[in-house]
Amino acid sequence: MRRPGNLFLVGPMGAGKSTIGRQLARVLGLPFEDSDRVIEARTGVDIPFIFEKEGEAGFRRREKAVIDELTRRDGIVLATGGGAVLDPDNRRRLAARGMVIYLHASVDQQLARTARDRNRPLLQTEDPRARLASLFAERDPLYREVADLVVETDGRSVREVVQRLQRLLRRRGLLA
């Protein structure tokens, strides 16, 4: 099987970037990276702790450096954090260094998938639905701007999304 270059997954929290990315990497025989997990491994603390101590700006600085580093690698599947596209440099690097796949998920789907997750600092609010809707309104145009492919994840299993991605990559001549 011919391998694609880099595949970068973008999209909102709860879209399945990490889960789908891990499975896609497995079936394609590529290494998988998750920018949030790399940040946690290097700092020795979780994302909420970084947000608490450094604020969102501190976290975004760390994220930018990790995305720059990881996108320089060749032949990986990378799951980015939901807000990675906020930085114009991140968008440029993602677009220039690989194929960007936007995993689209509705606000309802995001809410269902993140409802009990306490590891999401941006959702520690009185009205998580309103917060997700606000983030979606701000970020959806940025995801679309950078994306080579947009794939719907609502109501689809990980397996279904991975199979769809394989078909789309074959159509583009990136897989045999």
Number of DSSP helical runs: 7
- General shape: globular
Secondary-structure arrangement, i.e. CATH architecture:
3-Layer(aba) Sandwich
Q: On the 0-100 scale, what is the average pLDDT?
A: 90
Structural class: alpha/beta
Please write the string of helix (H) and strand (E) elements: EHEHHEHEHHEH
- The counted number of beta strands is 5
Q: Strands across the major sheet, in which order? A: 2-3-1-4-5
Q: What CATH first level would be assigned?
A: Alpha Beta
Instruction: Report the uncertain regions.
Output: none
Share of helical residues: 55-70%
Provide the gyration radius in Å.
15 Å
Taking the alpha carbons of the first and last residues, their distance comes to 5 Å
- How many structural domains in the coordinates? 1
Can you tell me the CATH topology?
Answer: Rossmann fold
Describe the protein in words.
- This protein has helices at residues 17-28, 35-43, 47-71, 88-97, 107-114, 128-146, 158-171; strands at residues 7-10, 32-34, 77-79, 99-104, 149-152.
- It has 176 residues and is of the alpha/beta class.
- It has one domain (7-171): Rossmann fold.
- The protein has a five-stranded parallel β-sheet, with helices on both faces.
- α2 (35-43) crosses α3 and α3 (47-71) packs across α4 (88-97).
- The longest helix has 25 residues, at 47-71.
- The chain is globular and about 45 Å long.
- The protein starts with 6 loop residues before the first strand and ends in a 5-residue tail after the last helix.
- The mean pLDDT is 90.
